[in-house]
């Protein structure tokens, strides 16, 4: 496939839809201990509570913002130049890296020197960096030395979502301030199944979690454009969006658009799973314009280099691919090193065999050569590369189940155990690791899978695809899997890889990407609430208060997708006046359940606390005042 | 609002979209112990496995079919005449009912005699029936006397989904038959949390479950059109679709279309929540054309009768409404009799107060009169009406939480306990009961809610609205609630009331109804799988086998929504040839993970079992044969 013409390097432009700020939202930056630690949040302004509901100020709330500079009107966005590089000073000041003369991989050099690619190529002036000989530049390595990096401080600030500022502003908002702050900040304690979620995320907590391998900050030194983020069971549950063209469909331009679109709606990470002709160039465009970590599956590209013949893959080709991609700035690599020879025959008994592309490539290689894969045999060599750029492992589940039938079978669980062993090898090298998980799993087997992962992989972050909880709904697998994702997130999974409605049927377009993202933001947030993640409920509380007080615009704006909520509302009540109406189309103007509570409250206020207590005890109180004074449920139109 | 002109009684026509059979599907009827017990199933024909995958016959599978005669090309559908009345002989032969001269409710008589309504009115020639004096015509009453009614036998056959015929046909399908039947019928044992799901549903089991109140068959004697179905924790999880106009929007015609549309996609029950001007006439059209049980909330109509002034409601008006609706054939009534005076002030502390319409009406009435509601005070009188027509109680949760903040609070749990007490009163009268549940509940509080319901309501079927697991996604509440619905279904809920994407924003249109239905079919089925409901996994297995064997059409057709799956697939690979292609657009023709398993299997077959065992033990075996003989992953195009 050819690149979309507008992404030829001279004329590429950003997707206009990706750079509009969200309604009533402004980008704010919370400064850390130094001026160059500026952590973005989205501040959503709210209107006051109407006098009829008892006037109250509703301070702006802050939400986690993955959209990067795109939604900042102050930022100058030029796709051809890529994003600014806020991390670069942090990397440089550590003085443990060197600038290379250029790409050092054979393939990287070849692509750079191919004049036919000039038009497609992103015009990068910066040279790649690598750790100085003998140095390890991983965040885990720093953490284990007791160093709190700017990246660690950054994610600590980010995770707290400026909660204290919001609650403080509530306290100061008026005579009811203290009470309101208490109300709006309250949340259910949650059930975290042994997680250790602190009241406040500190930089030291981040460091300690990374040091013990329970969290990672994917942050290649060649991706200085990122706004650092953390993946771990004691932090907010994250989501990953997969994009990528195939030989059958889509172009470079479309993939860059999908990336900016995915992060607009909340994608914390993006994996580029391209398998087409211009993998190298597509990736460069994506990374240079991505404020979120980018993951890849290097074996896909290695396979292209041997014309699709898995048996012809070699360690040398794979190694060159790792270096090529590490020097472009890929933040994590999916490596299917757990597909061992002895597990492959176990899949012959399955309903759907091997469904992981990477897993199938390695299985074929293992069978053809009848030996363990070069990924497994060279695992420590791979670690050496990872630590020279700080690429994190995403240990691939090449044998994940592709159907309910195959869930939690011996092949899957055998591989999981091997991934646990590899985790310890990686940790020996201070290399960051997360573990990929399934797949298709019925609800009652999800917890078993999670518990085994925690135990066998020593709490290295789990990163699951769904899981899909049934096979019978092609076209709706964002939902079959969103159900499983919410649960496994609750049980301890750190990042959820989205599934779009097109799963099993085709490659997702932008509509599908958004549906997948929003579904997974829901799953991740439901998991945060159930775990009792501190502050998670603030957004629910704010939205519910807006809903109860008929602040329609606030209800839309605080939601995950203000555009959709507004569109749905306007289908039945399009007039602007309906946005301030104290009713909605479900019950109509003459009938509304929300109003009764207002009446109950007014009654409570009038009668005083004694009367209320009497009511509670079922004692007789005069009711005449209520009838006289109660404002009517049924508003006159 | 006026009725849609095409639903004027003279010219009303059925929605053409509702009467097309689904792809490759035929309606079959399984006969019971007598010729007039004919239980519908949808039979989905499959193609054979291609020779390249090892030829196999794939017998048709049978799925539960809620669509009624609409999808039967043999049936003559005329909306103006309503459906046939297969239950009528069963009702008549019991000789415990009498035909009335006409409606006996004041309101029913009034509407019948109002000439202005002639054009809108469904032209019903049949007279209503009622139990003979002193008789109780509830299914529970028969069950407790040890009688197995035709309705009970019907649902028993229905629940088994003709599983044995499918497995038997597999066994007979060829030399691999026995093995295939074993494979395709196998499923995970599940975790049922104390449910008692039998290997085979017998009519006697149905009877015993109804007798002890653990299941209900909603089946008003004035709704002889229905195809009986059962709601209980030891049966397949069911779903309910709400339809209904409001003063702001929609018409009779639209509501009838929504009903036929909802059952096409799997709605087991439909509730008519209309609050507009022609509630009575709308309901008649819906019931006469509905093969599924219809539920209502009678207080909505009673309120219309007092011009929306809750305080003016009386027992007499409510009683007349119950009789009016019972004589039309409503199968279950939501009755908010658990909203007690002492619970109302508890809601003053909530984030979102009272969000149930019925709950708010009763709360207002209680406060205004300062006494317990007529629903509570006259509960036994209501039981007398219910048993004269076999209307089931759906005890409404008027104090369900409307936000995460309010989940499982004292108001909600107080009411639940009262509903348990009312259940025992209803059971004293042999009246069938289910219990409505929330609402908005974070995941970790769902099980607590379920367990309390089982305990306090003595395993009367739970019927929940979602629950929504977060408040932050208006526009996607089918998903926020589908997550909770799947879980609560797994834990023991018998029926899930759908939530559409329009929840909180507007009334659902047909697109929303379908999205809600499919989401809830997914949730219900995921719950069946997790509970280990016998036979539930057959459909997953069949779909996954089709997927693995690249039988695209079978994959679409076995799914919940063949139209959507086909449409998504065709977006990227529209040619018919792609439907038989051994690849898909996700990975493209040169790359496919499914093929490797085929190779592994072929390898296994060639090497024989000894070699495979050697492989498992990690021993050396010759690999040259594999390389020589393995068919390539990468198909030449």
Automatic annotation (TrEMBL), chains A, B:
Catalytic activity field: 5-amino-1-(5-phospho-beta-D-ribosyl)imidazole + S-adenosyl-L-methionine = 4-amino-2-methyl-5-(phosphooxymethyl)pyrimidine + CO + 5'-deoxyadenosine + formate + L-methionine + 3 H(+)
Presence of the UniProt keyword Iron-sulfur in the record: yes
Keyword annotations from UniProtKB, A to Z: 4Fe-4S, Iron, Iron-sulfur, Lyase, Metal-binding, S-adenosyl-L-methionine, Thiamine biosynthesis, Zinc
GO CC, alphabetical: cytosol
GO-annotated biological processes: thiamine biosynthetic process; thiamine diphosphate biosynthetic process
InterPro entries: ThiC (IPR037509), ThiC-associated_dom (IPR025747), ThiC/Bza_core_dom (IPR038521), ThiC/BzaA/B (IPR002817)
Pathway involvement of the protein, from the record: Cofactor biosynthesis; thiamine diphosphate biosynthesis
Cofactor binding remark: Binds 1 [4Fe-4S] cluster per subunit. The cluster is coordinated with 3 cysteines and an exchangeable S-adenosyl-L-methionine.
Binding site for Zn(2+): 440, 504
A GO MF term: zinc ion binding
Domain of life: Bacteria
EC number: 4.1.99.17
Positions annotated to bind [4Fe-4S] cluster: 584, 587, 592
Listed cofactors: [4Fe-4S] cluster
Annotated binding of substrate, by residue: 242, 271, 300, 336, 356-358, 397-400, 436, 463
The ThiC-associated domain, residue ranges: 21-98
UniProt record similarity statement: Belongs to the ThiC family.
Complex and partners: Homodimer.
NCBIfam families in alphabetical order: PRK09284.1, PRK13352.1, thiC
The protein's role, per its UniProt record: Catalyzes the synthesis of the hydroxymethylpyrimidine phosphate (HMP-P) moiety of thiamine from aminoimidazole ribotide (AIR) in a radical S-adenosyl-L-methionine (SAM)-dependent reaction.
PANTHER family: PHOSPHOMETHYLPYRIMIDINE SYNTHASE, CHLOROPLASTIC, THIAMINE BIOSYNTHESIS PROTEIN THIC
Name of this protein: Phosphomethylpyrimidine synthase
Source species of the chain: Herminiimonas fonticola
The organism's taxonomic lineage, starting at the top: Bacteria, Pseudomonadati, Pseudomonadota, Betaproteobacteria, Burkholderiales
Name of the gene encoding the protein in the UniProt record: thiC
């Amino acid at each position: 496939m050819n690149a979309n013409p507008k992404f030829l390097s001279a004329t590429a432009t950003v997707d206009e839809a990706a750079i509009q700020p969200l309604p009533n939202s402004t980008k704010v930056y919370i400064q850390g201990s130094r001026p160059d630690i500026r952590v973005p949040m989205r501040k959503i302004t709210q209107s006051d509570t109407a006098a009829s509901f008892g006037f109250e100020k509703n301070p702006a709330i802050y939400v986690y913002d993955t959209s990067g500079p795109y939604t900042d009107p102050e930022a100058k966005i030029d796709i051809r130049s890529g994003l600014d590089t806020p991390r670069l000073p942090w990397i440089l000041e550590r003085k443990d890296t060197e600038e290379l003369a250029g790409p050092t991989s054979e393939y990287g050099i070849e692509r750079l020197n191919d004049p036919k690619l000039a038009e497609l190529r992103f015009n990068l002036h910066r040279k790649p960096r690598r750790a100085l000989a003998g140095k390890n530049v991983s965040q885990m390595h720093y953490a284990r030395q007791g160093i709190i990096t700017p990246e660690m401080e950054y994610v600590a600030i980010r995770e707290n979502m400026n909660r204290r500022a919001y609650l403080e502003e509530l306290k100061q908002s008026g005579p009811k301030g203290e009470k309101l702050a208490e109300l709006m900040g309250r949340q259910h304690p949650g059930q975290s199944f042994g997680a250790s979620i602190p009241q406040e995320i500190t930089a030291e907590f981040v460091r300690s979690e990374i040091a013990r391998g329970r969290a990672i900050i994917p942050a290649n030194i060649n991706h200085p454009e990122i706004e650092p983020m953390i993946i771990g069971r004691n932090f907010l549950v994250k989501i990953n969006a997969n994009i990528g063209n195939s030989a059958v469909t889509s172009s470079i331009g479309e993939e860059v658009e999908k990336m900016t679109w995915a992060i607009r709606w909340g994608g914390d990470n993006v994996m580029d799973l391209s398998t087409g002709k211009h993998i190298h160039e597509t990736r460069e465009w994506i990374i240079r314009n991505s404020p979120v970590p980018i993951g890849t599956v290097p074996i896909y590209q290695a396979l292209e280099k041997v014309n699709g013949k898995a048996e012809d893959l070699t360690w040398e080709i794979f190694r060159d691919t790792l270096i090529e991609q590490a020097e472009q700035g890929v933040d994590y690599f999916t490596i299917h090193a757990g597909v061992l020879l002895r597990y492959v025959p176990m899949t012959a008994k399955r309903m759907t065999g091997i469904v992981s592309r990477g897993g199938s490539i390695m299985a074929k290689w293992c069978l053809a050569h009848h030996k363990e894969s070069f990924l497994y045999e060279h695992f420590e060599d791979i670690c050496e590369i990872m630590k020279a750029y700080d690429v994190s492992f995403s240990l691939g589940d090449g044998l994940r189940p592709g159907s309910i039938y195959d869930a939690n079978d011996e092949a899957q669980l055998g591989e999981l155990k091997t991934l646990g062993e590899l985790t310890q090898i990686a940790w020996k090298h201070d290399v960051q690791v997360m573990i990929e998980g399934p797949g298709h799993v019925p609800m009652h087997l999800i917890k078993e899978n999670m518990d085994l992962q925690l135990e066998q992989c020593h709490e290295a972050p789990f990163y699951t695809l769904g899981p899909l909880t049934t096979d019978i709904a092609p076209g709706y697998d964002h939902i079959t899997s969103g159900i499983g994702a919410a649960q496994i997130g609750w049980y301890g999974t750190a990042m959820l890889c989205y599934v779009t409605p097109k799963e099993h049927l085709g490659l997702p377009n932008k509509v599908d990407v958004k549906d997948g993202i929003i579904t997974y933001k829901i799953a991740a947030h439901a998991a945060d609430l159930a775990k009792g993640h501190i502050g998670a409920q603030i957004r629910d509380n704010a939205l519910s208060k807006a809903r109860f007080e008929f602040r329609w615009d606030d209800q839309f704006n605080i939601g995950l997708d203000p555009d959709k909520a507004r569109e749905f509302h306007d289908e039945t009540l399009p007039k602007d006046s309906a946005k301030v109406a104290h009713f909605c189309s479900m019950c109509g103007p003459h009938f509304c359940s929300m109003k009764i509570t207002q009446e109950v409250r007014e009654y409570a206020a009038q009668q005083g606390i004694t009367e209320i207590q009497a009511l509670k005890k079922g004692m007789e109180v005069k009711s005449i005042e209520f009838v006289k004074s109660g404002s009517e449920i049924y508003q006159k139109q």
